[in-house]
Amino acid sequence: MDQAIILQRIDKWLNGPFDEETKSGIRRLQQEKPDELTDAFYKTLEFGTGGLRGVMGVGTNRMNKYTVGMATQGYANYLKQCFGDDVKVAIAHDSRNNSRHFAETTAHVFAANGIKVFLFEDLRPTPELSFAIRHLGCQGGVVCTASHNPKEYNGYKAYWNDGSQLVPPHDKNVIAEVDKIASVDEVKWSGNDHLIQLIGKELDEAYLDMVKGLSVYPEVCAAQHDLKIVYTPIHGTGIMMVPAALKKYGFTNVHVVEEQSKPDGNFPTVIYPNPEETET
């Protein structure tokens, strides 16, 4: 990209309606890491069929409150086109750094657009978000997560009313609406906070009951209740549901890896949180 365009984008962020922490971060990169600054602004973080995913930081090509807010505004616009003014969404997030911040930003933008929001009170695994959408009769949902990517990353995954990620034609249509949001000035950032409702334990119990009901051979679980099971959440959201689900099934000999049981976006005991990689 033309360097002049990159500089124009940087100048817009330095002199526009962005918070001082963001502007300080840009100035710091100007002085210390100019190449990283160029990478942060040379393009706009793309909203693909799965949503957003990228390195966290300042700039148009990074995961931050502004790129998350613009994506949410586009998604909100499309939901209202499809369902009118009676729209509800559920929002969850993982243990990654800034995930709660991104989830709350998403909730506030939806609410400002007149959309009812069910926001999990704390981190929850993605499958529970899918369940919540259907259980609460929502038209859409978002989970802030970057799955097994390195700790520098975060993401934003959009869901439809069937509890699945976006599929045709909605994926392309949402992308088109997000692409129309050209400036943070077009985002409704605040208002209607009364539309945000925290959810937690009651939804957890409904989810666990559903999971238990999926057992094909409950009598086998009962017969093998003392089977020795070792589980690690690798510092992620699984700790919120997996031990409880195993208990629901009646398993009594479950051992959680203590060193990896605490949610931590820095994933201190692994290189990066992908159990499929031997290097972890």
Please describe what this structure looks like.
The structure is a single chain. The protein has 280 residues and is α/β, with parallel strands linked by helices. Among the domains are: 1-43, no CATH class; 49-199, Alpha-D-Glucose-1,6-Bisphosphate, Chain A, domain 3, CATH 3.40.120. It is built from 10 helices and 8 strands. It has helices at residues 3-15, 20-32, 34-41, 65-83, 99-112, 126-135, 170-180, 201-213, 218-223, 242-248; strands at 52-55, 88-93, 116-120, 140-144, 153-160, 196-199, 229-231, 254-256. The strands form 2 sheets. A 6-stranded mixed β-sheet has the order 1-5-4-2-3-6, with helices on both faces. It has a two-stranded parallel sheet with strand order 7-8. Helix 1 (3-15) packs antiparallel against helix 2 (20-32), helix 4 packs across helix 5 (99-112) and helix 4 crosses helix 7 (170-180). The longest helix has 19 residues, at 65-83.
